[in-house]
Amino acid sequence: MYVAVKGGERAIEKSYERLAEQRRGDKSVAELEVKQIQEQLKLAVNRVMSEGSLYDPELAALAIKQSNGDLVEAIFLLRAYRTTLPRLGQTLPLDSQEMEVERRISATFKDIPGGQLLGATYDYTQRLLDFSLLAESEADKEAQSTLSSDPLKTLNSCKTTAPSIYPRVMDLLNDEGLIEPTPPLNPLEKTVDLTREPLTFPASRATRLQNLARADEGFLLSMAYSTQRGYSHTHPFVGEIRVGQVEITVEIEELGLEVSIGDIKITECEMINQFAGSKTAPAQFTRGYGLSFGHCERKTMAMSLVDRALRAEELGEKIESPAQMQEFVLSHSDSLEASGFVQHLKLPHYVDFQSELELVRKMRKTAATIKSDRVSGEMGDSL
Known about the structure:
2 domains; four-stranded antiparallel beta sheet; disordered N terminus; alpha+beta
């Protein structure tokens, strides 16, 4: 804490008050409600949930409001709260094959079973500011007033078409044996919970995927970009991206039953990568995988690219690039650790700096003395 700052603890308390004033902003403007953030800033909420390792849209929205829109700070708040929650049980693996799809695209096949489903996406929008949004609030108020006065309209506005369940695009390559089988799980391998146990190396793929799922999106994006610029030996294709609701189930061991406890929204990406083959494997495509809470396409695409790069040793490839080095990638991917290590430099380092300052002064003084003695010696020799 900044106890050395003039005013001590009282100054810190005043800083809290100033922070609250800054967060609130101009009081002539209506205060932003948590529900508004949850409903209208969904992509920010989804990122905070994904990197905060806690699926709760309301709490993620609260964290965004409390942090004044700083998403890394919001992720920190959500993770900190997560540590206070009891662990009631463990869910069974998600069956994304049974996902109720809202959006589903493939860049490898034009015609896929069930067809392409664009859903909501910025992919085809023009990147131009829409100034009509500045005047949208009044129109929203009028629309809300109309809905409130007509219950039937309100009911109809909430109706949506039930999403369909689609087969996997990767099965098209599976049927021809042109892509590696899904790597099987080792039943004897202990699954590490990174929220409770420290990361150790070498890390299994399951552990790596855990790490990448809660990794900073910007860092993953940079690593993924590096693989596309030649700092890896893969050429990726998006096999399939799908966004939708999946069922969460738990097993009640005492009764031998599996019980559904709800649905969550996820984004899943399967990346197809070239592989020349090896002494034991024929030429075929290989896989990269990404999955996150909510609608986070960029994150899952980057995750799948980095996942594939980190499989270099497993596939007998030469490790030459940063994205292929698991210790480099996994040790620097966490936004909270990175932020904390950088931001701790703001805290008082008076003693450390003074010791280094004295050392530099001493070194300069010693160097000056040696130089003076050398000059005196040279002058004596010349005489």
